[in-house]
Amino acid sequence: MALFLVEFATPKKLREHMSVALSIKNLHKTYQNGFEALKGIDLEVEEGDFFALLGPNGAGKSTTISILSSLVQKTQGEVIIVDANIEHNFPLAKKYLGVVPQEFNFNMWEKVFDICVTQGGYYGLPMDLAKERAEKYLKLLGLWDKRSNVSRSLSGGMKRRLMIARALVHEPRILILDEPTAGVDIELRRSMWEFLRKINREGTTIILTTHYLEEAESLCRNVAIIDKGTIIRHSSVKALLRELNEETFIMDVEGSITDAPILTGYQTRMIDGHSFEVDVEKGKPLNDIFGMLNELGINITSMRNKSNRLEEMFVAMTRKNQAGKSGGDK
Ligand code: ADP
C-alpha cells in the first residue's frame, strides 16, 4: 500500500537497495528558554519495522517526532527519512511520512470526508484519487458512516481514528504516531493495535512513541528507550524484556580471583580481583549459585543488588502512570 507515492518519489532501482527508513545522527534540541530536550540522539529504523520510542513523560519523544515533521527546528544533527535529508529535501521527506500528532489538529467544522480529501490535495493527489483514498481509509477505520458529519461531533476515539485515516491518505511509507493510545479506552486501544499491525504487515513502517511498556511489548519488534533527552537502550523488544526480567548481583569474594567464576546457566563478569557480577532471573533462588561457588572453593564475603537504570525508570514510569490514571494521561 505504501508504494504509490514512491513510484514518483524514488527511482525503482534505488528503492530495491534501500532498507533504512529513518536515520537520526547526533540530534540536539535546545528550546529557546535554554532547555536541552535532546542531547545528541542516534537512531536507526529499518524499513518494514514496527518501532517504539519508549520513555517517560518529558523524555524528548514528541520533540524528536516534531523535528521529523519539521514542526520543531533541530539545533544540530542529521535526519534522513528513507533517502531524503530533512534539511536539504524536506518536500520529499514529508511525502514519505504520515504523522499522527497527539493533539487533534483538524478543522473542527469541516466534514470528516472533506478533511481526508483536503489532505490528499495537500500531498498532490488528483481529486479522484484523494476521494478514493479517503473512502478506503475511512472505511478501514470504521468512520465511513460519519463521513458527512463535522469532525467536532465525533467522539474522542473517533477523532483519533480520523487522525490516522487522514495521515494515511497519501499512503506514506512510514507512519509515525505520537502516543496513539494515551487516554484511549481499552477496547479502542485493542482495535487500533489490530489496525496498525495490519498496515505494518502490508508494508508500512510504523514508529510510535509511548510511555507504556505494554504497548511496545504487544506491538513492536524494536525499541529505543529515551530518558532525559538521551537514548539509553536500542534493541529488540525481546532483548529488552529479557533484561528487565533479570537482576544483577555484585559478589565480593574472600581472597582474590583472576577470572569471573564459570557458573553453569548464569552470565558472570569480572569486576576486579575481588569481585564479580552475575545475572539472575528475577525470583530464582540463589542456592544454585552458592552451591557451585562452594564447589569451586570460592567464599563470598558480601553481595549486593546492582541498581538497574532501566528498571528504575520503568518503576518510576509505572508509578507516574498510576498516579495519573484518575486525572487522565499527559
Ligand atoms: P515527551 O514527548 O517524551 O513527553 P517532550 O519532547 O514533549 O517529551 O518534552 C521534552 C522536554 O522538553 C520536556 O521537559 C518539556 O517540558 C520540554 N519542552 C517541550 N517543548 C518545549 C518548549 N516549546 N519550550 C521549552 N521546553 C519544552
Give an account of the 3D structure.
This protein has 330 residues and is of the alpha/beta class. It is 37% helix and 27% strand. It has 12 helices and 14 strands. The strands form 3 sheets. The protein has a 6-stranded mixed beta sheet with strand order 6-7-8-3-9-10, sandwiched between helices. The protein is elongated. The model is unreliable at 1-15 and 325-330 (pLDDT under 50). Bound molecules: adenosine-5'-diphosphate (ADP).
Residue-averaged pLDDT, rounded? 89
For the biggest β-sheet, the strand order reads 6-7-8-3-9-10
The counted number of beta strands is: 14
Structural class by secondary-structure content: alpha/beta
| Ligand names | adenosine-5'-diphosphate
Q: Percent of residues in helical segments? A: 25-40%
Order of H and E elements: HHEEEHEEHEHHHEHEHEEHEEEHEH
Oligomeric description of these chains: single chain
Reported for the largest beta sheet, the result is:
6 strands, mixed
> What does the radius of gyration come to?
24 Å
Shape: elongated
Low-confidence blocks of residues: 1-15, 325-330
Span of the ends, CA to CA: 33 Å
Number of helix segments? 12
Strand fraction:
25-35%
